[in-house]
Design goal:
By secondary structure, the chain is mainly beta. The chain is 11% helix and 30% strand. It contains seven helices and 34 strands. Strands 3, 29, 30, 31, 32 and 33 form a six-stranded antiparallel β-sheet that branches. The protein has a five-stranded antiparallel β-sheet with strand order 1-10-9-8-7, with helices on one face. It has a five-stranded antiparallel β-sheet with strand order 2-6-5-4-34. Helix 1 runs antiparallel to helix 4. The longest helix is centred in the N-terminal third of the chain and has 22 residues. The chain starts with 75 loop residues before the first strand and ends with a helix. It binds fe (ii) ion. Fe (ii) ion binds next to loops. It holds the Pfam family RPE65.
Length: 609
């Protein structure tokens, strides 16, 4: 369920495509006539090379390297390698890849733009190779002092091998793009894969091994064929996803202050611990299970209480319990799972919110398809929408040990994928701020048709009444706040402008403190024609004083200019109504569009060394 995660994805304008390509030998639907093809790469690049961007302009030299074996930690596991001999595994690989090609070409070829790699990976969604730390100049203004010593890291899908068949954007291997800002020296930029079990094994084998979750099982013949092939790979010892996980770690990042660790996250697996080295490089440490207490997957959107250092999280899945809640206390001890059996249907729950007293979930109309007949007769997708389902909000005490005190209230038509914040008001009310996804039926297949309208939702837990107020009519998602205010009443949020999703053409600042019946946009910066960014991230001038102005800080993001094929790191003044750009760093090459990012403070980076 990886990329459920990061939300948002799907067809991309096919007008410009990456170069260096060879045709895919399969019958093509008519919509592909204006598309050439992407390169099908069977071997990883291991030498210094010069690549080109979507416009054919040369990019800077990059070196793809294999990171040294990661250090072991007591509860962090490195992948187990396959046990077959090299000659037999080579023959197996040839046979399995031939069968994979057969399925891709004749049983389950790409049938829609949302899973056609020539469309999904076009323009600045095309993958890039790894890049070691590379100095980059501050092209405009001066970087604020509060950024010094820290690093901005953004996660996103970047397939190691270009796909031979159907491919959804969610199915790409996680790559971290890191801008380190050392004190007294120029910034450095690097791009590194998260060395997941999947990435590591496929690199060793030299080709793709894992089936794609979001694009590999369309209809019964494809399910049977890919299932049989995966079973053969497993039984032959080529891969062991049961022991090592299936995660792509392509969705988000989190620094957990109670364990002093940085994680790359994807909701289909355990967190992958990573660190930033003193020279600005990224190293993967391995899967982390919190002293053996986390045996299954974890959300890509854990919530961190900045005042208590507690971490709250959950997982969801296709079999009961469909939702499981847990927290990791301030002493780094993961507390027992709290299974939520009152969620009675498998539902896509990508994010949640916390208050000082509660954890808040949304049971929405985007559902996990577990009906075999749907696979045979329907779209065959794991994810779908149920227009007959009535959405609900579920509220459980945040230190609950079971679900006895969980309260569900119906909120028809409320389909939250990402939460922004929530807090308690009075004795009986909670307030939540979140984008509500309109037209949920398009969530995976036609994301460009989805509109996300930010709402303030007020729930009275005593009476069960719900009040809803639209905050803005614009298409907004990927919302963040000053992280000091997570779970506490706050005023300001910073959100990406979908144009259309998943491309972000600007950032708006919302003030939801008053005026519940009018548009609450109080700041805006559009990036300009042909320029697109990603999720904004707020960095406060002070990270510890709640008395400081909530918006006293900066909004940062990578922004790509499709006109010239260049990317920048933008720093915007959060207090300014125009979100004035105070600094820009020219990056050594383009950064593909991706999912969620994080700014890691100087003091936290030092804890990772
Ligand atoms: Fe997300």
């Amino acid at each position: 369920m990886e990329a459920f995660s990061s939300s948002l994805f799907s067809p991309i304008c096919p007008s410009r495509l990456i170069l260096r390509v060879t045709p895919i030998p399969s019958p093509r639907p008519s919509y592909r006539n204006n598309i050439s093809a992407v390169r099908i790469q069977e071997k990883p690049t291991t030498t210094t090379s010069t690549s080109s961007n979507t416009l054919g302009r040369p990019e800077s030299k990059s070196t793809t390297t294999t990171a040294p074996p990661p250090p072991q930690k007591s509860t962090t596991n490195t992948p187990r390698r396959p046990t077959t001999s090299s000659s037999s595994s080579s023959l197996q690989t040839v046979i399995f890849n031939a069968l994979d090609d057969l399925i891709d070409n004749f049983i389950d070829p790409p049938t829609t733009p949302s899973v056609d790699p020539t469309s999904v990976l076009s323009d600045n969604f095309a993958p890039v190779e790894e890049m070691p730390p590379t100095e980059c100049p501050v092209a405009e203004g001066t970087l604020p002092a509060c950024l010094e010593g820290g690093a901005y890291i953004r996660n996103g899908p970047n397939p190691q091998y270009l796909p031979r068949g159907p491919f959804h954007l969610f199915d790409g291997d996680g790559m971290l793009h890191c801008l380190s800002i050392p004190q007294g020296r120029p910034p450095t930029f690097c791009s590194r894969y998260v060395q997941t079990y999947k990435y590591t094994l496929e690199r060793q084998v030299g080709s793709r091994v894992f089936p794609n979750v979001f694009s590999g099982f369309n209809g019964l013949p494809a399910v049977l064929a890919r299932g049989a092939l995966s079973a053969a790979r497993f039984l032959s010892g080529q891969f062991d996803p049961i022991s090592n996980g299936v995660g792509l770690a392509n969705t988000s990042l989190a620094f957990l202050p109670n364990v002093n660790m940085l994680f790359a996250l994807g909701e289909a697996d355990l967190p992958y611990a990573v660190r930033v080295t003193s020279d600005g490089d990224i190293r993967t440490i391995g899967r982390h299970d919190f002293d053996g207490k986390l045996s299954m997957s974890m959300t890509a959107h854990p919530k961190i209480d900045a005042q208590t250092n507690e971490v709250f999280a959950f997982r969801y899945g296709p079999v009961p319990p469909f939702l499981t809640y847990f927290h990791i206390d301030a002493n780094s001890s993961k507390q027992p799972d709290v299974p939520i059996f009152s969620l009675t249907t498998p539902t896509f729950i990508h994010d949640f919110a916390i208050t000082k007293k509660y954890a808040v979930f949304a049971d929405i109309q985007i559902v996990i398809n577990t009906n075999p007949m749907e696979m045979v007769l329907g779209s065959g997708s794991f994810v779908g929408s149920d227009p007959k389902k009535v959405s609900r909000i579920g509220v459980i005490p945040r230190y609950a040990t079971d679900e006895k005190e969980m309260r569900w209230v119906e909120v028809p038509g409320f389909n939250m994928v990402h939460a922004i914040n929530a807090w308690d008001e009075g004795e009986d009310e909670i307030v939540m701020i979140a984008p509500n996804i309109i037209s949920v039926e398009h969530t995976l297949e036609r994301m460009e048709l989805v509109h996300a309208s930010v709402e303030k939702v007020r729930v009275n837990l005593k009476t069960g009444t719900v009040q809803r107020y639209p905050i803005s009519a614009r298409n907004l998602d990927f919302g963040v706040i000053n992280p000091r205010f997570v779970g506490r009443k706050n005023r300001f949020g910073y959100l990406g402008v979908g144009d259309p999703m998943p491309k972000i053409s600007g950032v708006v600042k919302l003030d939801w403190s008053e005026g519940e019946h009018k548009d609450r946009i109080v700041g805006c910066r559009m990036f300009g024609e042909g320029c697109y960014g990603g999720e904004p991230y707020f960095v406060g001038k002070s990270e510890s004083d709640l008395d400081e102005d909530e918006d006293d800080g900066y909004v940062v993001s990578y922004v790509h200019d499709e006109n010239v094929g260049e990317s920048k790191f933008l720093v915007m003044d959060a207090k300014s109504p125009s979100l004035e750009v105070v600094a820009a760093v020219k990056l050594p090459r383009r950064v593909p569009y991706g999912f969620h990012g994080l700014f890691v403070q100087d003091r936290d980076l030092k804890k990772l060394l």
